[in-house]
Amino acid sequence: MKEHKPQSKWKNKLHEVIYEADTPSGKLFDIVLFILIIISVILVMLESVDEFDQRYHKTLLTLEWVITIFFTLEYIARLISIKKPLKYVFSFYGIIDFLSTIPLYLSYILAGSQVLLAVRAFRLLRIFRILKLVKFMGEASQLQSALKASRAKIAVFIYVVLILSVIMGTLMYLVEGDKAGFTSIPRSIYWTIVTLTTVGYGDIAPQTNLGQLLATVIMILGYGIIAVPTGIVTAEFTRNKKNKEVDDKSVLVHVNTQACPSCSIEGHRDDATHCFNCGHPL
Amino acid sequence: MKEHKPQSKWKNKLHEVIYEADTPSGKLFDIVLFILIIISVILVMLESVDEFDQRYHKTLLTLEWVITIFFTLEYIARLISIKKPLKYVFSFYGIIDFLSTIPLYLSYILAGSQVLLAVRAFRLLRIFRILKLVKFMGEASQLQSALKASRAKIAVFIYVVLILSVIMGTLMYLVEGDKAGFTSIPRSIYWTIVTLTTVGYGDIAPQTNLGQLLATVIMILGYGIIAVPTGIVTAEFTRNKKNKEVDDKSVLVHVNTQACPSCSIEGHRDDATHCFNCGHPL
Amino acid sequence: MKEHKPQSKWKNKLHEVIYEADTPSGKLFDIVLFILIIISVILVMLESVDEFDQRYHKTLLTLEWVITIFFTLEYIARLISIKKPLKYVFSFYGIIDFLSTIPLYLSYILAGSQVLLAVRAFRLLRIFRILKLVKFMGEASQLQSALKASRAKIAVFIYVVLILSVIMGTLMYLVEGDKAGFTSIPRSIYWTIVTLTTVGYGDIAPQTNLGQLLATVIMILGYGIIAVPTGIVTAEFTRNKKNKEVDDKSVLVHVNTQACPSCSIEGHRDDATHCFNCGHPL
Amino acid sequence: MKEHKPQSKWKNKLHEVIYEADTPSGKLFDIVLFILIIISVILVMLESVDEFDQRYHKTLLTLEWVITIFFTLEYIARLISIKKPLKYVFSFYGIIDFLSTIPLYLSYILAGSQVLLAVRAFRLLRIFRILKLVKFMGEASQLQSALKASRAKIAVFIYVVLILSVIMGTLMYLVEGDKAGFTSIPRSIYWTIVTLTTVGYGDIAPQTNLGQLLATVIMILGYGIIAVPTGIVTAEFTRNKKNKEVDDKSVLVHVNTQACPSCSIEGHRDDATHCFNCGHPL
C-alpha cells in the first residue's frame, strides 16, 4: 500500500495529462498530439504519391519513425495510466490507436504488409477525441441532435431509395442487356444509384432508346427525391431554432399599443392591469 | 353445411397465419417470408454475375428451386384461404406474387425465356406487404402525407421541367447538329434532362461555343430549379411539424375585433356569444 | 354598317371559339388543338431520328402536312377574328404560331432550310396558352408568386455564381494550361460552371495536382452554395403558407380543455373567466 | 499652407469623383469604370481563344492598351487623391487594382510573363467596389447575414466532409489499388470529393465490386449530407423572415426571473420598475 500510493499519484498525473484537457500540461499535450496527427496523415498521403516517395523516401521514413515511436510511447502511457487497461484496449479509440501505430512495425515483420501502411491515415479519427475534450463540438452537437431526431425518417428514406434502386436496376438490366456495361444486376444497381444520386460518372450509360427513357425517369425521380431528406432536416433545424429562442428568459408576449396614462410608456403585456414602469393602474 | 364448417375453420387459421401478423404464428410466417425474399433476391443478383454463375451454377439453381417451391405453395395457400380468390389474383400483390414465382417454370417450357428470370427480383416488392402488416411504416406515412399534400405542385413542377427539356433539347439539336452525339431530338432531350438534373454523364457533351453557352444556361437553371421541389416539400414538413406541436393546448382561433359591451375586453372568438371575461352577452 | 354587323357576329362567334374556353365549342377547340400540338411535337421528334425517318418518311410527311394545314387555317382564322390583327402578329404567341407553321412551306422554297424543321417543336409553347385558358395553372401561380418574391435574391445569387465562375475559371486556365482541355478562358469558365453546379460531364477534367485541389474547392463551394437558392425559395414557401393560415384576424391563443358547466362548450381561452358562449362563470 | 489649400481642394474634388458615388460626376465615373471593366474582361477572355486571337490580334491589343492606360491613370489618381496612399496600396482593392494593371507592361519587360496576362480577368473583382458604392447590395446583405449567422455550423459541416473524404479516400485506395486511376491517396481523396458532392466526372471510376459497393455508400452519404447545409441556411432565412414579421404587435421581450414582492407574479420585462399586475414597485 505504501509503495502503491506514490506510484498512483504519478499515474494520476499522467492520466490527467493524457486523458484530460483542463490543466495547462493537459492542453499542451492535446495540442502537440493534434499537430503530430495532422503531420503524420500528410506524410502518409505524400508517401502514397509515387514520384514524391521516390525522391524523398528517406526523409519520409525518418519522420514516420519519429511519429510512430511517439505514438507507441503514448499508447503505452495510456495503458499504464488507466485503471482498466483492457477496457481501453477494446474501446473504439483503443483500437484506432493500435491500428494506426502497428503498420510500420508490421511492414518489417510481414512481407507484403506494406499495403497496410495506408491504414495509418485512420489516425485522423483520433482528432475527434481531442476535439471532444476541448469542447470544440458545441455547434456539432446541434447538428447531431437535428440528425438524430430525423433518424427514423432518414432510415425509411434510404430504405425506399435502395428498394427503388434494385427494382430500377433490374429493369435496366432487362432493357439494356450486356451492351453499354449493364453486365449484371449488381452492376445495374450500381449504375442506378450513380444516376439517382445525380453523380453520373458516365462509365456506364444507356444506349437504347428505351433505356434512355427509363434513365430519364430515374433522373427526374432522383432530382425530386433529394427534396425529402432536405425537407426532413430543415424542418428539424427550424424547430430546433424555435425551441432555442424561446428557451431561456425570452418569451413571446402579446404586447398592445396602450400607453400608460401616467408615464406614457408603451409596450404593456395584454394581460397587464398596471403600468410596468410607474405602477399606475392601466 | 356440416362439412363446410370445419374446413372453414382450417381455412380461417391459414388465413390468419398468411394474411395477418397479430398472432405468434402469423408473425413467424412473416419473418420467414421476409428472410426468404431477401435471400431469393440476392440469389437472383448473384446469378446475373457471369463469373459467379459459372462457378456455383448448381448450388444457385438448387436454392432457387427450394425458394420457388416454397413461394408456389404460399401462392396456392393464399388462393385457398381467401374468400374471393379471383380478386386476389388480379390485385397488385397477386400479380407480383405470380410474376415472381412463374419465371423458373417458364424457363424449362419456353426456350429463350431465361431472360425473364431477372423478373424474380421484383419479389422485393413483396416486402412492402410484410412491412405494412407489422406497422413498420409509421414514419413512412408521415413522409407520404407530406408528399401527397404537395402532389399538385410537384406535378406542375415536373410538367414545366419536361416542357423546358423539350424546348432546350430542340435548341441544342439545332445548335450542335450531329456532332458530339446530338443525333436526334429525343437524344437531345435525353441530354438536356441529364444536364438539368445535374447528373451529367458526359457520354454526350456540347463541342461548339454556342452549345456550351446554352449548356451553361441549362445547368444554372437546373441548379436553381432544384430549389423548387425542396421548398415545396420542406414547407409541407414544417407545417406538419407545427400542426403537431400546436395540437395540445394551443389552437389557432379566429378572433374578431369586437369589444365586450360590459367589460370592453377584446379578443373574442368569432363564434362567441358572450364575453369570456365577464359573461355579458355580446 | 349594315353589312358589317352580321359579319361581325360571325367573327365574334369565331373569336369565342378560338380565343376563349368558356363555351362548349371553345373547350372542344382547345382540346383538339392540345392533342394536335402533342401529336405534331411527337412527329417532329420521330422525324429527327434517322432510322425512323427512313422507314416511315411518307407517313410522317403526310401527317405533318395535315397538321400544318390545320395550323395554317387556325392562324388565318385568328387573324380574321381578332380586331387588331397586327397586334396579334407581333405578340409572343403570334410569333410562336407563325414560326411553328412556316418551316414546312419554307423547306420547299428555300434549299437548305430543312434544318429549320426542328423549329416546329416550339409548337409545344402554344400549350401554355391553352392551359392559361382552362385555368389549369392554379398551383403554378403559387409557385410563380414564390419565385417572383425571391427574384431579387436569386438574381444576386446568380450574379455571384457567375463572377465566381469567371474568377475560378481563369485560375484553372492559369493552373492547367492547354493540357486536359482548358484551352481558353471561356472553356475554363464552362468547365467551372459544369463543376460548380455538380453536373460534372468529365469531358474536361483537371490533371495536375494543383488543378485537382482547386477543383475540390470549387466542388465543395458548389455543394454548399446550392443551399442558398433552396433556402430562399423555401423561406418564401413557408411564409406563403403561414400568411394564408393566419391571414386576417386569426391569432394563436392558448386554449384549455375546460368545458363550460352550463352549456358544455369547450375551447375557452386560458385567461377566460366566463364562458364565451353562454356567459356562465367558469 | 497657402499653396496647399487650393491643391487640397482639387484633390478633394478628385477624391469625391473617384471614391464616392453621391455626386453626378462620381456616378458617371463609376458607370464608365463599370463598362470598361466588363469590356476589358471580355477582351481578356477573347484573347485566350487561339483562333480569335490570331485573327484579331492587333485590334485586341490596341483596345487592351487603351484600357490599361485608363486604368493606370485611374491608379495614379487614386494614389494622389487619397490622404494615406500607402494604406490604399496594401488594401485588398489596392492590390487588385495593381495586379490588374501591371501584366501588360510586364509582358514587354519580362520574357515568359505573357502567361500572367490572364490575371487581368481579376479586374472583375473591382466591380464589387462599384456595387458597394451604388448600394446595389441591399439584397446581398440579407444573404450575407444569413450565411454569417450559420458560419460556425457550415465550418463544422465542411470539416466533417473533409475528414470523411480522407477516410473514404484511403479506403478506396486500399480497395481499388492502382487500377482505375486510384494511384495515390490524394487522388483517391479527390475522387471521393468528386463523388460526395455528386459532381461525378467519371475520369476515375471504381472497377472492382467492393469498390463499387463502397462508392454506392459514398454517393448515398453525399446525397443525404447535402441536406445539412441546406437545412442550416434555410432555418436561418426562415428565422430572418419571421423576426421581420413579428414586428408589429407581438414583440420578443426579455423577461427576467424576478417575482413581484407584493403579488409574487413573475415574467416582468427586464426594464420594468413596477409589477405589471399590481403596480407595486419592483
Automatic annotation (TrEMBL), chains A, B, C, D:
Its GO CC terms are: voltage-gated potassium channel complex
Residue ranges annotated as transmembrane are 28-46, 58-76, 88-109, 154-175, 213-235
Q: Where does the record place a coiled coil?
A: none
What is the superkingdom listed in this entry's lineage?
A: Bacteria
Compartments in which it is found: Membrane
Where in the numbering of this chain does the Ion transport domain appear? Answer: 27-244
Q: Does this UniProt record's set of keywords contain Transport?
A: yes
The topology of this chain with respect to the membrane is: Multi-pass membrane protein
Q: Which UniProt keywords apply?
A: Ion channel, Ion transport, Membrane, Potassium, Potassium channel, Potassium transport, Transmembrane, Transmembrane helix, Transport, Voltage-gated channel
The Swiss-Prot or TrEMBL record annotates one GO molecular function as: voltage-gated potassium channel activity
Q: Name one GO biological process term.
A: action potential
Looking up InterPro entries in the UniProt record yields: Ion_trans_dom, VG_K_chnl, Volt_channel_dom_sf
Matching entries from Pfam families are given as: Ion_trans (PF00520)
Q: What is its main location?
A: membrane
Q: What is this protein called?
A: Ion transport protein
Which organism is this entry from? Allomuricauda ruestringensis (strain DSM 13258 / CIP 107369 / LMG 19739 / B1)
